[in-house]
Amino acid sequence: MQKIKAIIFDLDGVITDTAEFHYLAWKKLSEKLNYSFTREFNEELKGISRMESLEKIIVASGLHKRLNQEEKLALAEEKNNDYISLIEGITPKAILPGIEKFIFQIKREGLKIGLASVSKNAYTVIKRLELTEQFDTIVDARKIKNGKPDPEIFLTAARQLEFEPIECIGIEDAAAGIEAIKATGMFAVGIGKKDILAKADMVYENTESLSLEEILRVYEKQIS
Fold first, then answer.
1. 147 closest CA partner among 13, 17, 45
2. Out of 38, 47, 84, 203, which could bridge 177 as a Cys pair, Cβ 3.0 to 4.6 Å?
3. Listed residue (197, 128, 199, 182) closest to 8, CA to CA
4. Greater pLDDT, 186 or 45
5. Is 0.70 topped by the overall pTM?
6. CA-CA distance, 44 to 34, in Å (whole number)?
7. Which of 10, 140, 150, 195 is flagged as catalytic?
């Protein structure tokens, strides 16, 4: 029977929730572009890269034919600077409920832990959460060419851990992230609404409900 050797996490919405900070930073930029940015639209940006998010916004605002690449890069940098300012106050108190307990369960089982976040600020956030030492590998999003739902970032995490994808379980809160996990051949665990994360192998409503024992049991039953 195939044995799981690692758990690979997404960051936003799984370990901590910086979605509000992303929302506020994108909203500020959108107002500058005279576009009415809503929370519903912000949901569409979950799991995708900064530049892909910006492209969605400028297309929606009707500015995609008027902005050149240099201007787009400047806007993305402006958004990122606002986001960085907002996350400066993050502390371990921002770790989502149940995650520290879940990490303890993983460590107790002798499994490795990886981080596969498209956020270029992932290192900063993990450091401020005081979780750096808990991760055996953190993928550098700046070296990833393709954003989710492309599987590149999860494949990279598995490779850095020196495991095959089938030996890993991925955890995500975004539909694009679940697609990325499944495209690698990994077992996918979703955090959120079942209808949105329908392609996941199993879904938990929130992080507090996570149970490594249950996940491993469902995984083993699925491959047996």
1. 45
2. 47
3. 182
4. 186
5. yes
6. 19
7. 10
